[in-house]
Specification:
The protein is an alpha/beta fold. It contains eleven helices and seven strands. It has two domains: 4-225, Spore Coat Polysaccharide Biosynthesis Protein SpsA, Chain A, CATH 3.90.550.10; 227-300. The protein has helices at 17-27, 44-50, 63-73, 93-103, 117-120, 124-140, 157-161, 172-182, 207-225, 227-256, 262-300, and strands spanning 4-10, 32-37, 54-57, 78-81, 107-111, 153-156, 187-191.
């Protein structure tokens, strides 16, 4: 029998964790349910233990740190990750695990945004942020993933054990999606009915600071995974600035035969040199990235 592990990262979810554990135990009776407590102070760990979960601890704060420990510690054929806030329905869990175990899907994404998310979610900036992140990643990485930041996912063993986690906080879901797209893992999305947190349960996500971290993560990973395009765009921007500076100098030279603005000429020329150097850096890093992908594929085949 294939081993299924349900992974629930938690930080102060005493209001909902019992319902979460019990609902997933009912949906996947054969699965082992792991709750990783991330310095909770409200007794989340004891409630989860009483509900029948295997409770472990991660003392480095942040969801990314918790997921890193989960992926390193737990061995399974299929990993189902959900949140401890009772917003993701357990009824989709069997289908998501089946796609991993029977169809060989590497990452199943629980798609909230195409169903009830915008009606249930009461935080308008979160709605805007989800759409912004989705559009950015789909444009930059040429794909059409409908929900980038969902915390409801199922993974294959190959994905979990070959995913280098760098993020420490809530930007972990964005990193997962970009890594899967870049490394050509098989993805499939499943429509889920999202429900907002019950009354008395508070979100740990800071709209502005965590949103800024997610945006910075996207640009960092864009630079790392697609360096030629990233540095080419930077180079084009600098060339436009340089030409804006140099066109008046060139026009005055053609009219008078004299260079009247030497400082502008020097600055514009320096910017052109920097733009060329950035493009060369992007070209070199693109070769390095391609070699890294080849090495990654070779290691995956071992």
């Amino acid at each position: 029998m294939n081993k299924i592990a349900v992974l629930i990262p938690c930080y102060n979810e005493s209001k909902t964790i019992r319902n979460v554990v019990e609902s997933y135990r009912q949906a996947l009776p054969e699965a082992e349910i792991y709750v990783y407590d991330n310095n909770s102070t409200d007794g989340t760990d004891e409630i989860a233990r009483q509900a029948g979960a295997i409770v472990r601890y991660e003392y480095r704060q942040g969801k990314g740190n918790v997921i890193r420990s989960m992926f390193r510690d737990i061995e399974a054929d299929c990993y189902l990750m959900t949140d401890g806030d009772y917003t993701y329905p357990a009824g989709n869990a069997p289908e998501m695990c089946r796609l991993v175990l029977e169809k060989g899907v590497d990452m199943v994404i629980g798609d909230r945004l195409s169903s009830t998310y915008f009606e249930e979610n009461k935080r308008p900036f979160h709605n805007f942020g989800n759409l912004l992140v989705r559009n950015l990643i789909n444009k930059l990485f040429r794909n059409n993933v409908r929900d980038i930041m969902t915390g409801y996912r199922a993974f294959s063993h190959a994905f979990v054990k070959n995913f280098p986690i760098l993020s420490k906080g809530f930007e972990i879901e964005t990193e997962m999606t970009i890594h899967a797209l870049d490394k050509n893992f098989l993805l499939q999305e499943v429509l889920i009915d999202y429900q907002d947190r019950p009354q008395g349960s508070n979100s740990k996500l800071n709209t502005y600071s965590d949103g800024f971290k997610v945006i910075m993560t996207i640009f960092r990973l864009f630079r790392d995974y697609r360096p030629l395009l990233f540095f080419s765009l930077c180079s084009v921007f600098l060339l436009i600035v340089a030409f804006i500076l140099l066109i008046p100098v060139l026009v005055s030279y053609l009219e008078t035969g004299l260079v009247l603005r030497f400082p502008t000429l020097f600055v514009g020329s320096a910017i052109i040199i920097i733009a060329i150097l950035l493009w060369i850096c992007g070209l070199i890093l693109d070769v390095v990235t391609t070699k890294h992908k080849q090495l990654y594929e070779l290691l995956m085949n071992k």
